[in-house]
Design brief:
4 copies of one chain form a homotetramer. The first copy, chain A, has 15 helices and 11 strands. By secondary structure, chain A is α/β, with parallel strands linked by helices. In chain A, the strands form 3 sheets. In chain A, strands 7-2-1-9-10-11 form a 6-stranded parallel beta sheet, with helices on both faces. In chain A, 68% of the residues are buried. Chains A and B meet through helix 5, strand 4, helix 6, helix 9 and strand 8 of A and helix 5, strand 4, helix 6, helix 9 and strand 8 of B.
Chain lengths: 385, 385, 385, 385
């Protein structure tokens, strides 16, 4: 069992930059000597744009270049007004890629997000000024377990970070007075507001807070499948709360966004259930609601999964055509670049941020959820008649 | 848009074997000429056991052999009374592997299941006697789209199968009178009972029906992320139903099973959110509820994902030790075999079914959910004092 | 440095089965306690054929089934008289798969082989009655290094096996009186004959010896790239030998086989330079010699590499069409099954050995090399005129 | 059959930049409309160095960062005087990455190269001013075959490029008067000199020419396994030449370089037989020659292959320790970054070129081969006594 730190250790104070390295009562375990992981913010480097356009000419380098140009030159064209979904799977916030997500949200380049719960949970560590450390994947896990150190591949941090983040979540749940079925977007919005009020300024280094600040709804496809969900379950069992995630709301809200989109496009990091959740939007419209909206107009994925292994993560835009998930006419505007998101996504963001349309008005969909679901309901009723 | 078949086409009648090939009004599209996919049932072949023990000596063949022996010789030992969870990701029921799952359930070799929604949804096609066909991944998807044929890699079937399965689900939802928050286990149990009543005998060729018949609870980690979830969302929006999946119940029920297990072990097919959902059970106990249960005793995974890509699907048992998901002392009883489940799982099932303890009393956990959650609550309250 | 065993330790004596576990002077290091690896011989199991035909219905399981049926039902049809090349990359003989290769050669089902040098070198350990052990990939390599244990993933054996195998090779080179440029087929044939004379009966448990016994020429695409090549280089430098591998002979002999084939087909295990070497046969004919032979008629590959990574191992039959390596009309007779050869190849061999045409007259190409190269030269001269 | 262009079409003239787009007599086939691929030259971008140090914090991004720092901060330290081998597998010159290799050679950052033959053969197209085009992997290969277009994944060019490059090689072979056993380094050096004399200035856009200009020996582990080897085989068969590659020389020359290295380190792109050829250097010393040199000091690999698949490409530095290929004490100075070389290698080169020791005196080993092999022989003789 990891050591359970006394909860009286208190919240660390902030330094001048709004960040505080954790100051434990005991010396850091030897495994936590690597540099702190920070949210890197892309700045639109011209050098990187040059490398991508001129040096990335074939194989996955070329696919990454295509992805950059589809996003920058087509999806961001003002006349297309593309509604852009970002799906996030794989340990991206632990790896410090939350900064890329924050940058895209601030610039209006992403309209809604579907993420694994784990990425949102681990984002809270940054918001709460805990420190995750760069490390190595080649460490002795039994030793880590004894030292109370948690490992996410090569990211290391004390188990107390989990326990204190959990304590924050449980306190937030009580404070929030949420007490009934909510969509995950509503939950995450409340969480982001709470973070901003208690950790002022954290919206520059927290995805959840930045989403709230910029009106970007965040959904989780597997709501029970992270420490946030685990703590809500605790809240129900132990506090007799009636707060629960209603996946129906999530399905209908995302479906409504897609219905409302002039054009629709996505950036898929990894794959997994967030990818599936996003891509089922179009089939929900035609297959379930009978509304002939058509599929995605743009499709960008960074993954290392492969079509031949049979999982949805590796399924191609081409296969999605047969399901009505992708418009049959737009295959040239779809691309899968086979690359680790930790490498590809920062490069992609540098390119996009530095592009001519690298900033656009934010849609702030988090505030339009009810209105757009009402449109979905109206349209579906009309079709039924 | 796929052709929307008239809903008056009716349900096909059954043949002598309880299966009916679909009999459409129009001739089959040219793409649907491959053999029908059937649920293959493993029979415990001695030849296959010999091959695995004597011919699978190194690399992933040896890992597959280890997995077989950990399951057959350790997890199934009567004195261990292991509570066994099976997690299912990747298109296994479309590939005809539902028969392996049914066989394991009937024999009491699996106590609960966590599956992607897609695997359960596509299982309904078998229950309802629709036909999926063997095909090729190298087909023209634009042509398929025009012909109203749906493709899952190399599995092909008419879009009408989707639409009629959806219609069945919506009818079931109305019939079921479910009207409030439920766990996915409760939903799937009701669905399985409904299938058995309307398609008598289908429990021999349907995972959902067999689970109901054998008392095996089935959970879905991402409840909005399949056509079942999409239709529940429809039901809420269009019929003002109050039926919703409550992920809190899923979290607490699975957590309670693990708490109650004398020993705990899992077989993970693929990875994805079902893997994560299963593995978070132990951390929920210590991290959230403060109950020092300890981690898994046995861990078997078949996957083609890799640890180096950073997703949870590829995370190793070793990394899970640092999280308290796997007991530090049991690494010898954990194994990951890197292989496509469509090849590895039938081989594994043949071995296990033919092993000395290849049948054991069923735990029928679906009927013990409330009782075990009450124990969880009691234990957690005690710890708090 | 691994311990260098005294060379006086002598050759171990044979037991009744013609195999001898090594009997070192000192007790076995603790790492060498796993079962000895034996060459498993496929027996044509009907159960396995049933599983493949009925249970392997989609995804890579289906591809493996296709591979079995293309080989058994098409390539082996007597009227096609297909010239069949087998290419071997990855540690197959260390994993005990040499028995599958021996079985195919004895039955006339493989006409020539292109292998990495490593597979042939490690085959010599079996021929010389040294023992490789089943083990684990999770061991401490620094400890192994200190204990003088060599690791090939999860295959473990004492460093003395390397040193004594090398000593055998160097003695053979002296004994052989080979002293000039030879093809690798000629070298391996001489080596196989030498093994049979010094280890009588070893052709039932050695690929190199069985190839000599059955007239199957074995080529190595990278002749300096194994301990056999390293010892030939030693022989030249230290003994002033003039023995050398002449890659020109290898290129022309393989090219001549393909020219002579009524139909040509291949089974590619892994990929790598052996795959490339085989597949360049057809382009050599048209691109270099100007002989319009056309490409392969049948193409079977087992690999886990992927087309998207850009290496030749992952290149598809389809891409090979543009190069004239594969006949454009035969794509239906090509298949890539994405699976570890240690699992897929024994299954494939069981199927093939048990098939109606599971034995055919051997072509014994090793004795026809000069004759067929002369035909190649004649045809090329005719084209030039 | 691809169209065989008339050989009278002549060599295209050069433009001002020393490059000439091919000017065929007939209009370009529709597939060849993509931008020409050029050899991108890294320039040491500070932005890219910043991204790698600050933004690449975990997972493979962090491994790529480690690789950059091991190379720039350790291998290039003047006091270490590391002998650096670069191994090249995968289609890097077709993808335009030859420019990175040229830059490293000019700056003295690579001392010798082991490459697949294919990379060298396709480099000749650049030297001879033929044009390869950016394209798509999703094209109809039967159509390409009919149009005489060759495809390397997404790189497209007319079949005439192959035929004219082959014609150049055959003319060179006659001109060169090489007529006996040579090492591949000697062959490639002669080829590079010939290119420089016939295409003056081509050493800025040809790996083979640049290697000759900078004294960098290039080896090929599988000498018969490319169009260069195929044409040498033709030369022997049709012209009765006695020119042949002697792999013994290659083995001994590389072995001698490693013996002479103060420290030894490698950069491995991909894996395959070039990786194996490099890494066998140390075992050749201790296992075959009995010289206790010890293993590599530094080891950097970019690959997408995985250790679990069992091929040498995916074998880790750790496993190499048990073979004496890597020094047991230096595992911290070894790194494998799992990434497509087309993305990772240009980033790595930008970092390295911009580093403080980004230029060092060239070793010009191509001229020291005989001298160093003599030292190897002398040392080996001494050990024998």
């Amino acid at each position: 069992m990891p050591h359970r730190p006394s909860t009286s250790s208190g919240r660390p104070e902030q330094d001048a930059e709004g960040r505080t390295p954790e100051t434990p009562e005991h010396p850091e375990p030897k495994h936590l000597t690597g540099r702190p992981i920070r949210y890197y913010r892309p700045r639109g480097s011209a050098d990187i744009r040059h490398l991508i356009d001129e040096g990335f000419q074939a194989f996955n380098a070329a696919r990454l270049g295509e992805a950059c140009r589809i996003f920058a030159d087509k999806m961001l064209l003002p006349e297309h007004d593309t509604t852009i979904g970002l799906t996030v799977a794989g340990a991206l916030t632990p790896a410090g890629l939350g900064g890329c997500m924050v940058e895209l949200m601030e610039r209006g380049l992403v309209d809604f997000i579907i993420s694994t719960g784990a990425n949102l949970y681990h984002d809270l560590h940054y918001a709460l000024n805990f420190t995750l450390h760069r490390g190595s994947p080649f460490v002795d896990d039994v030793e880590l377990h004894e030292d109370g150190v948690i490992r996410i591949y090569d990211v290391l941090f004390p188990a107390s970070v989990l326990l204190e983040t959990d304590a924050y979540i449980r306190d937030f749940l009580v404070r929030s007075r949420l007490n009934g079925p909510v969509s995950t977007a509503e939950l995450h919005y409340a969480l982001g507001r709470d973070l901003m009020s208690r950790q002022p300024g954290c919206e520059v280094h927290s995805v959840v807070a930045a989403a709230a600040a910029n009106g970007v709804p965040i959904y989780t496809s597997s709501p029970g499948d992270s420490s946030i969900g685990m703590n809500i379950a605790y809240h129900e069992l132990m506090n007799d709360s009636r707060l629960m995630i209603d996946p129906n709301k999530d399905v209908n809200e995302v479906c409504a966004f897609i219905l409302a989109g002039r054009k629709n496009g996505c950036v898929i990091l990894g794959g997994g259930s967030p990818k599936n959740f996003y891509l089922q939007g179009q089939p929900t419209l035609w297959e379930v609601y009978g509304i002939p909206k058509g599929g995605n107009d743009y499709f960008i994925q960074f993954t290392t999964d492969q079509v031949v292994w049979g999982g949805l993560s590796g399924a191609t835009p081409s296969e999605a055509v047969s399901w009505g998930k992708v418009n049959p006419g737009v295959l040239p505007d779809t691309v899968v670049a086979y690359a680790d998101s930790t490498i590809a996504f920062p490069l992609f963001c540098e390119y996009v941020v530095g592009s001519p349309h690298g900033r656009r008005p934010r849609k702030e969909l988090v505030h339009k959820r009810d209105e757009l679901v009402a449109v979905l309901k109206r349209d579906a009723k009309q079709v039924q008649r």
